């Protein structure tokens, strides 16, 4: 059953909503726009805010749904596994040659479903950093890096491992962004690709 929850989470997480929405609305192939990422930030670079919002909600929703369904039917361990697998599926979807998104929305949705105070604190960290810096990647990196610390501080040591797993992958997926942050060339939120 544990393996089935992992497969369920991965398959749900690997649905590339940003790519589907952009194509459906005639915005082009996201992989050839801006950063080439299939997530909400790159959809925003097309100038279509409703499409970016829809991508954000759907990408976060797939992590949350994976957690909630698995928890209801399989318990807390199944929920953590399905959430982590959904995140993995978003970052490395088999049908896109394992070249997916950077996982930030799915990460936040997964955390909210696992433990809503942890998820909301991570969201608040992202929002505050974005408001100050106007840089999505910096906001994501800070929220991800602090999530295991927040889990510990909230008395949920059981969530440290899954938070750390997602944080490490967010850093891996953001390697080009980290290089641009060091060079001062990282684009700001809302800049068209």
Distance between the termini: 43 Å
Please, what is the average pLDDT? 92
Uncertain residue ranges: none
- Counting DSSP H or I runs of 4 or more residues, the number of helices is 10
What is the number of domains?
Answer: 1
The portion of residues forming beta strands comes to under 5%
CA-based gyration radius: 16 Å
Shape: globular
How many distinct beta strands? 0
Major sheet characteristics? none
In short:
The protein is an all-alpha fold and 193 residues long. The protein has helices at residues 2-13, 17-24, 40-44, 49-74, 76-91, 104-114, 116-133, 136-153, 160-173, 175-183. Helix 1 packs parallel to helix 5 (76-91), helix 2 runs antiparallel to helix 4 and helix 4 runs antiparallel to helix 5 (76-91).
What does this structure look like?
Its EC number is 2.3.1.275. It is found in: Cell membrane. Keywords: Acyltransferase, Cell membrane, Lipid biosynthesis, Lipid metabolism, Membrane, Phospholipid biosynthesis, Phospholipid metabolism, Transferase, Transmembrane, Transmembrane helix. With 193 residues, the chain is an all-alpha fold. The protein has one domain (2-94, 103-183). The chain is built from 10 helices and no strands. It has helices at residues 2-13, 17-24, 40-44, 49-74, 76-91, 104-114, 116-133, 136-153, 160-173, 175-183. Helix 6 runs antiparallel to helix 7 (116-133). The longest helix is centred in the first third of the chain and has 26 residues, at 49-74. The protein starts with a helix and ends in a 10-residue tail after the last helix. The mean pLDDT is 92.
């Amino acid at each position: 059953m544990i393996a089935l929850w992992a497969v369920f989470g991965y398959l749900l997480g690997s649905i590339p909503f940003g790519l589907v929405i952009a194509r459906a609305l005639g915005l082009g192939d996201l992989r050839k726009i801006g950063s080439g990422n299939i997530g909400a930030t790159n959809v925003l670079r097309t100038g279509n805010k409703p499409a970016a919002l829809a991508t954000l909600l759907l990408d976060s929703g797939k992590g949350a749904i994976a957690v909630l369904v698995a928890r209801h039917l399989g318990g807390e361990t199944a929920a953590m596994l399905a959430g982590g697998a959904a995140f993995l599926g978003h970052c490395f979807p088999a049908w896109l040659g394992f070249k997916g998104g950077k996982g930030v929305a799915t990460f936040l949705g997964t955390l909210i479903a696992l433990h809503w105070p942890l998820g909301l604190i991570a969201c608040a960290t992202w929002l505050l950093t974005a408001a100050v810096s106007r840089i999505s990647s910096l906001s994501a990196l800070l929220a991800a890096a602090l999530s295991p610390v927040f889990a510990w501080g909230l008395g949920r040591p059981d969530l440290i491992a899954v938070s750390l797993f997602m944080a490490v992958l967010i850093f891996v997926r953001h390697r080009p962004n980290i290089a641009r942050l060091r060079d001062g060339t990282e684009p700001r939120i809302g800049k068209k690709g």
